[in-house]
Amino acid sequence: xxxxxxxxxxDHLTSAREATTALLSNRAPGFSLPxxxxxxxxxxxxxxxxxxxxxxxxxxxxxxxxxxxxxxTLDIGDNPVIIVRGAENRIHAFHNVCRHRGSRLCIExxxxxxxxxxxxxxxxxxxxxxxxxxxxxxxxDFDLASYxxxxxxxxNGGGFLFINLSDDPPAIDSLLETLDHxxxxxxxxxxKVAVQSSIVEQANWKLVVExxxxxxxxxxxxxxxxxxxxxxxxxDDPRATPAYKALVARKQVDxxxxxxxxxxxxxxxxxxxxxxxxxxGTVSMTMDGKQGCKKLMGRFTHPDMxxxxxxxxxxxxxxxxxxxxxxxxxxxxxxxKTVVTxxxxxxxxxxxxxxxxxxxxxxxxxxxNAQDRHLAEQNQRGINSKAYQxxxxxxxxxxxxxxFVDWYSxxxxxxxxxxxx
Length: 421
Known about the structure:
By secondary structure, the protein is α+β, with helices and mostly antiparallel strands. It has nine helices and 17 strands. A hairpin with a 6-residue loop joins strand 6 and strand 7.
């Protein structure tokens, strides 16, 4: 479905913005979004411009770039980005674009370098982005200082790396301080990625996030996950049973005794943190509920730490356990194409084959990710039908989806309004 019909190319963007504003302003609260939000190419471009180029995005973990010269790359739509650890342990982020003729500097997803060197014509940059060498052919009056890499705002907290592509990013200090507090016991600077996977889902990124924000579908779709996971979102979940609430109360006493933060923390509709128990008798998100890694994370002395669940809209959610962590990142590739990257993290001193088996560690979430991909893709195929119209969310089972869609709508309208001024 086309969002707008216009024969004048120059008017397309303005018309798309006006049409999107009208659709969001008139949408029915508590209902799924109108069809164009899930499959229209022009609206997808607006998602990238107004959400993914203006909001803080989860990029990765600081432990992925542990030493000077370590870098990682990712693409935010058409914008390749590089994040690198420089001198004095400082983390920098740049547009992964050479200032000579625009070639990407770093091609690999991860690596380690002494300097950032463009493979096209060997322009060479310091790890802080300064241009050091451009050859002698640029002329004697060429000013190296005028051609440093273009910076990208980057912040870190609790081991999380966030980037923002806008020129004037909003403050996120409160989130970073909260992450530092909740993840202190896990000591994420002493973690490493044990295994990583990326899957491409033929579905709009919002459908991927919506699917994550509810467990209405879990009983029918995720037998492996429900071997250990409580389907309740947190202790405020309206579906929570008396038995679950009693288990939560007992575990909170244990966590308090070890100075482990657990309180439900909401930061608007965008961020949520809470530590919640796994099923009684299980200690980890593995097929049998037993430890997936013998060496515990951080300062934990036993594995039964439940799951610290962290949500960062628009593109991440995580589970931090006593023995390992599972971190998810969502990046849009097209109107109906999304890549979901999953990382399993363990203590940096844990030895593969001795302390953990990567295949055992990843089995539950590999199965769950495959099931979620199927669900999202079937959802997308149905939405593409001319029969689709927005349907009602359950306030009891899908309150997390309502929060996400409301957050998305509010941020999109706010950015569209600012752009129109």
